Here is the input.
Amino acid sequence: MNPIIEKIRKTVPTSFERQEVDKLLAGVISRKTLENLAVKGTGPRYYLLRGRVIYDREEFLTWLSKRMCPKKKQLEY
Here is the structure.
């Protein structure tokens, strides 16, 4: 399993608001990026609760892990 995904799984609550993303996932993905992806229909599944966007942690992590690329090897000269 991806160590980044596992670290996020341990630190992020089981559900969280889009507004919390910048604080919870600093450097991984931003709130604004998620907003843009939602408009395009390519972002993670979300739920609306009283006008707030809520993500399920496991659904979010599944979506995120499918979009992560493995580190490329650096060429040695």
Summary: The mean pLDDT is 91. The chain has one domain: 3-65. The two ends are 31 Å apart (CA to CA).
